[in-house]
Structure formats: C-alpha cells, structure tokens
Design a protein that fits this description.
Layout (H helix, E strand, L loop, with lengths): L1 E4 L10 E4 L9 E11 L1 H8 L15 E9 L10 E5 L14 E5 L3 E3 L6 H5 L2 H15 L6 E5 L4 H13 L2 E6 L5 H6 L4 E4 L5 H7 L4 E6 L6 H5 L2 E9 L22 E4 L9 H13 L6 E6 L4 H10 L5 E5 L3
Parallel strand pairs: 8-9, 8-11, 9-10, 11-12, 12-13, 14-15
Antiparallel strand pairs: 1-2, 3-4, 3-6, 3-15, 4-5, 5-7
Helix pairs in contact: 3-4
Length: 326
C-alpha cells in the first residue's frame, strides 16, 4: 500500500510518500481502509521529532481517521464495509497511523457510524469532537442552562466545543486574540465573543457578575491564574490544551486556586466518545444544527505536506483534512 512515512525527524520534506507492506491485523485488531483523516498539531510535532519517547521512527503518522472496515475478528462486532472512525490510543505514535491507505488499530478504539455526509466532513471530526465532548462531559459535566467560557475559542477544539455546548443549551463566551475573528466565533454559536489581550476576567465579570459556571482552558498555564478569576464559587476549570505552549506553572501551589473553584483536566481516548454520541453529532451536522469546521480539503497523500504547512501557519480557521480518492 501507499503511505506517508517519516524515517527520521525533520522539515516538511521528512514526509515521504512511499510503498510499504500491507499491515496485517493482530488478534483483537481491525484493519481499516482509510477514506479521510484530519491533520493535527501533534503530527507536526511527531514529524519534527519533538514528541515524547513513545514515538519511534520510522513511523507512519496520523492520530485519527475514518474509513470502512477491511478485516476484523468475527467476535469484534464489526463487519467488512462498515463505516468507522478511530483515533488516539498510540495511533501514529507507538504504532503506525492513518497517513496511509490502510491502518490497523485495536478493536476497542473503533467507533462505528452511519452517515451520508462526505468523507471529508466525517474525517474532520473524530479527534476534535472527542476532545471537545470529553472536556465538556467528563472534564466539566456541563449542563443545559449553564454558562461556559472557552479560552482559545478559534482553535478547532474551541469551535467544536462551542457548537456542542450551544446544542446542549448552554450560554457560551469564547475568546480570540484577533478582533477580526469574532465573526468565526459567532458563526459557531458563541453568544459573547471576547478579545483576549492576556487578561479577560474583568470582561467576563461584566457579562456574568457572579462568574461563569465552567471554563474550557485551551490556552494554557500562562493564563490560568486569570482564568480562575472568571469562575463562580463551586464552578470548574478544565485544562485541556496549551496553545500558548506553557504546560507547567513554575512554583505552583494549590493555594493559587480560588476558594471553592475546582480545577480538572482532560486528555482522553476514543472510548470517551460513545458511538451513540458520535452518531448524534453526525446527525446534527446533517440536520444543520452543528457545523463541521473544515478549513480545507487536501486530495491524496501527496498533499499531506501542504496540509501540515497550513496547520503550522495557522492562518485558516478549522480542520485541515486529507481525502483519499483512490
């Protein structure tokens, strides 16, 4: 089969399209014919050699993908030709991933679905919806009628979280560093777009004097102290990402957390996105209640370099998706 292989870390030219042996599924694993996959920051990190020691080379990157079952054990509950999604669980890191015509993964991280949506739409969803949904459901326990602040709102996870939260019935505040991108937040259903200049607590408190019920933190530790100031007593902050690049707090003390405010985190797996929830999200997109934030569709493995370059540039909001036409 054809695949994109990183033999050793480097620039975009380290992403080489080549022919490799067809992967054979081990017991309990499933082989999927890949139809489309999203391109993510973590795959850029893998290509550069900046991942943790879990990643070894040569490696086929790709932490998510959608396609059809090609081969599966009879007791897996999966059948050839069935539409499926898969993500995370070491995929593209400790074992070869989705930048290929076929991928093999453990059956436990395969999510079956049925949809008439184009493959490029389905391919944009697994990782960002899993992260957004898991953060809201597991990390925050968000309920209808609550107020949610998303810090880092124009990221793909931020946009997805806004749409899911609005569909749930929450009031959503969300941030961007660029005033001209406020329209993107409104298009995702955000009630109150905010321009983030590094401190947003006063802006939030003007809108919600007692503080918001929940915060999805995607910017990182560099703004966490200010984020705490936006939350009501007994509210919660879920730390999911660090777009600003700072994952730790020098000299951290638990007493920096305001009285009664809860700090949680989320870094989940495919199993945190139940099949019925993913199916509901697909149906909501088909019905027009949710929108898949697709930035650009790239055709074929030869365009993976262009897709990663666009992800690094960060100038186009939404998910970059590679569609395999063959």
């Amino acid at each position: 089969m054809r695949a994109v292989v990183v033999t050793q870390p480097g620039g975009l030219d380290a992403l080489r399209v080549t022919t490799v042996p067809m992967p054979e599924p081990q017991p309990g694993w499933v082989r999927i014919k890949v139809k489309a996959f999203g391109v993510n920051e973590s795959e850029v990190t893998t290509r550069k050699g900046e991942s943790d020691p879990e990643v070894t080379y040569p490696r086929i990157p790709g932490i998510e993908g959608v396609g059809v079952v090609d081969q599966a054990d009879e007791d897996s509950g999966l059948r050839p030709g069935q539409q499926v999604a898969t993500m995370m669980g070491g995929m593209g890191r400790s074992f070869d991933g989705s930048y290929a015509q076929y991928v093999t993964v453990p059956a436990g991280q395969v999510i079956p679905f049925e949809t008439g949506l184009p493959w490029e739409v389905a391919g944009a969803l697994p990782e960002m919806f899993q992260t957004a949904y898991g953060s809201l459901a597991t990390g925050l326990g968000l309920q209808a009628g609550q107020t949610l602040l998303i810090r880092g709102g124009t990221s793909t996870v931020g946009l997805s979280a806004a749409m899911i939260a609005k569909d749930l019935g929450a009031t959503v505040l969300s941030t961007t560093r660029s005033p001209e991108r406020a329209g993107e937040l409104r298009a995702a259903g955000v009630d109150h777009p905010l321009v983030d200049n590094g401190t947003i607590a006063d802006q939030v408190r003007e809108l919600v004097p007692d503080g918001v019920d929940a915060v999805l933190e995607l910017v990182g530790c560099s703004v966490l102290a200010d984020t705490f100031r936006t939350v009501r007593r007994h509210g919660a902050v879920c730390f999911t990402g660090a777009l600003a690049g700072q994952w730790t707090i020098p000299g951290f003390t638990p007493f920096m957390i305001p009285n009664g405010v809860r700090l949680t985190s989320y870094a989940g797996e495919a199993t945190d996105l139940p099949a019925q929830v993913f199916q509901q999200q697909l149906r909501a997109i088909a019905d027009g209640r949710l929108k898949a934030p697709v930035a650009k569709v790239h055709h074929g493995l030869e365009q993976v370099r262009d897709a990663q370059a666009d992800v690094e540039a960060g100038t186009t909001p939404g998910k970059h998706v590679v569609l395999l036409d063959d």
